[in-house]
From TrEMBL:
Pathway: Lipid metabolism; malonyl-CoA biosynthesis; malonyl-CoA from acetyl-CoA: step 1/1. It catalyses: N(6)-biotinyl-L-lysyl-[protein] + hydrogencarbonate + ATP = N(6)-carboxybiotinyl-L-lysyl-[protein] + ADP + phosphate + H(+). This is Biotin carboxylase. Keywords: ATP-binding, Biotin, Fatty acid biosynthesis, Fatty acid metabolism, Ligase, Lipid biosynthesis, Lipid metabolism, Magnesium, Metal-binding, Nucleotide-binding.
Length: 458
């Protein structure tokens, strides 16, 4: 069913807001940027057709304030709301409120957000669809005795995970029963603080794994996949580098994982773009579903470089009620793409976030280079939000060319005034195992901190 709108309220900030504005402009849509008092001088506010102040600097006063966002949409005459990623992008109640206000929500159905946001229900959906899941509890564990019984059955080490969680928050690894007793309450408390729910569940903790995700898109009738991305370079479960395709896996295993993602999304009648995430044990070739993100991903440009498909414009079209413009047989992956997340963080001090004024900001360009950012020289980076400054992407005919291009691009990049992860990324490109694509999700902790504490990155 067609859902007409000509103006989109952007319920987000930073580089993703810039990305949405550009897609809307190409699609002939007007944009309204909702902004906090801390973001009055940001690039999205300057670029949008209109900007509306929605509250104070703290997220609860602005980007997490449903009432203020809906009021801004009404004030500006917006017919649709794009939540971006983070903030309210996976909040089913927000999606319901947008629709109840007579607006189009540029994302999946609220019930699907609710279902996939509940990690226990998501596991159950995956099992019903025939997609392998990690051995673990069948539902939430409410008591220490219940947790100990599950752990004894699946074997240590085990991972305690927030049922309503994501992004690594509310997670603890227990190597034995004593650690499980010590860490269970802490995981529950963190889950309550981060997600408003103390519910947790247990999974078998697997080491030396790769984190692989598959980009999917659906219009409510058809679902396609647009290839995979390897997101194994992480710290504290937060991704720092993503690349695609996942060439460390053989082609048959890649296709099996992609088909599983498409099958799961189709089984729930998925609409809009999303990402199905897996962990993979390369030696055994076993893979397991871990979660589905019902929103645009930070690393979506990797897929755009590989396929030539504008995923944000695809979101807009699906939200307007149009069928998918790309069929599965039309999807082709060309070359290799890598994304670096340039964060305002100090790697030598445990990646602590850094706020302040950027005195110099020079990003690379040239063949095969893309930069998505909201930053500029003179920008005062506020301390209230995510530390992501820019996404530096490169494309090459193969991984080797992409790495060569990435070295060149990093040599050109210069940010002064605040600490960033640029030096960390330059060091990463000197790591032999990374260059050989022999990595896993604990690579940074074991290889980079283990061999040199990074004091030289100050």
């Amino acid at each position: 069913m067609a859902r007409s709108f000509d103006t989109v309220l952007i319920a987000n900030r930073g580089e993703i807001a810039v990305r949405i504005i550009r897609a809307c402009r190409e699609a002939g849509l007007k944009t309204v940027q909702a902004y906090s008092s801390a973001d009055a001088d940001t690039l999205p506010v300057r670029m949008a057709d209109e900007a509306v102040l929605i509250g104070g600097p703290k997220p609860a006063e602005s980007y997490l304030n449903t009432g203020a966002l809906l009021q801004a949409a009404a004030q500006a005459g917006a017919g649709a709301v794009h939540p971006g990623y983070g903030f309210l992008s996976e909040n089913a109640d927000f999606a319901d409120a947008v629709v109840a206000a007579g607006l189009v929500y540029i994302g999946p159905q609220a019930e699907i957000i609710r279902m996939m946001g509940d990690k226990v229900r998501a596991r159950q959906c995956a099992k019903q669809a025939g997609v392998p899941v990690i051995p673990g509890s069948e539902g939430v564990v409410s008591t220490e005795a219940e947790a100990l019984a599950v752990a004894a059955e699946i074997g240590y080490p085990v991972l305690i995970k927030a049922a309503a969680g994501g992004g690594g928050r509310g997670m603890r690894v227990a190597q034995d029963a004593s650690e499980l007793r010590d860490k269970l309450a802490g995981a529950m408390n963190e889950a309550q603080a981060a997600f408003g729910s103390r519910e947790v569940y247990l999974e078998k903790f697997l080491e030396r794994i790769r984190h692989i995700e598959v980009q999917v898109a659906g219009d409510g009738n058809e679902v396609i996949h647009l290839g995979d991305r390897d997101c194994s370079i992480q710290r504290r479960h937060q991704k720092l580098l993503e690349e695609g395709p996942a060439v460390a896996l053989d082609h048959a295993l890649q296709e099996e994982i992609r088909l599983s993602a498409r099958t799961l999304a189709a089984s729930i009648g998925y609409r809009n773009v999303g990402t199905v995430e897996f962990i993979v044990e390369p030696r055994s070739r076993q893979f397991y579903f871990i979660e589905m993100n019902t929103r645009i991903q930070v690393e979506h440009p990797v897929t755009e470089l590989l396929t030539g498909v504008d995923l944000v414009k695809m979101q807009l079209a699906i939200a307007a009620g149009l069928p998918l413009s790309v069929r599965q047989e039309d999807v082709r992956l060309h070359g290799h793409a890598i994304e670096l997340r340039i964060n305002a963080e100090n790697p030598a001090k445990g990646f602590i976030p850094c706020a302040g004024r950027i005195t110099e900001f020079a990003m690379p360009s040239g063949p095969g280079v893309r930069v998505d950012t909201h930053a500029y020289a003179g920008y005062e980076l506020p301390p209230y939000y995510d530390s992501l400054l820019a996404k530096l992407l490169v494309w090459g005919r193969d991984r080797e060319e992409a790495l060569d291009r990435l070295r060149r691009a990093l040599d050109e990049a210069r940010i002064e005034g605040i600490a960033t992860t640029l030096a960390f990324h330059r060091q990463l490109l000197r790591e032999g195992d990374f260059l050989r694509n022999d990595t896993h999700t604990r690579f940074i902790k074991e290889h980079m901190y283990g061999k040199h504490p990074m004091r030289h990155l100050l």
